[in-house]
Amino acid sequence: MYMTSLIGNTMIVLLVCVDYHLHSPMYFFVANLSFIEVTITSTVVPKMLVNTFSPTKAISFMGCLMQSIFYFLFGSTEFFILAVMSFDRYVAICNPLRYTIIMNRQMCILLLLASYVGAFLSMLGPSVLTAPLIFCGPNKINHFFCDRAPVLKLACADISWAELADFIASAVLLLGSLLLTGVSYTYIVMTILRIPSVQGRQKAFSTCVSHITVVTLYYGSAIFLYVRPKKGNAVDINKCATVLNTIVTPMLNPFIYSLRNEKVKESLRDTFNKYLGTLTNFRSQK
Length: 286
Hints:
- By secondary structure, the chain is mostly helical.
- The protein has 10 helices and no strands.
- The protein is globular and about 65 Å long.
């Protein structure tokens, strides 16, 4: 599953880079979403696989800290990018004549940078409250990676403020970005319903199906995991939800965007045919 996710998402990034037909704001954000999928799974899964086959199942304190920081940084960025992608679809459907003016190169880069900055700021409060905590034995994390809640349980101090900050940051990030996505799609649906032809409505809605599917998968598991004041209960259920969020959904992402998207499928066919043509010419010359 990890290799499928790694190969599939890397393929999406490379396709968007090399095929000029995919040089549009929508695919720019799709490529960045795929890049983030690679970083999230690579932050968690390789160490998890090593520990699966290792008798010690150990991770250093610094390694655990870095894994947690990168997981939450890229995970938070992902939700901002999903909200930005919904805004992109809103502009494309509700303001098609101004789409290229609004979603120009500078705006796309600015929105991407804003996503990373917003993710960093959302981590700042919980990180500041977690940093001074003193951790003591047995230092056994009841999880397959350094998620914040199981790590906080190892602290030899009151963690109520850290848990509260974690809950507030998660709620603002997830529910805030979900609200922006919901508002965008409310206007999108209202605009689609005003399109007179059935074919026009289907074509407009088809451009949003992949994004809606990804949003549903990500937000469903993430809200269940992190928008709760107390996260210590139902550990096994939390682990299953984390597997869905960090492994299964990133693996499905390339299939969602390739199987339901004609431009991506066409780009795949063209790239594959060019590769076969180049390989055939090379062999004939040889």
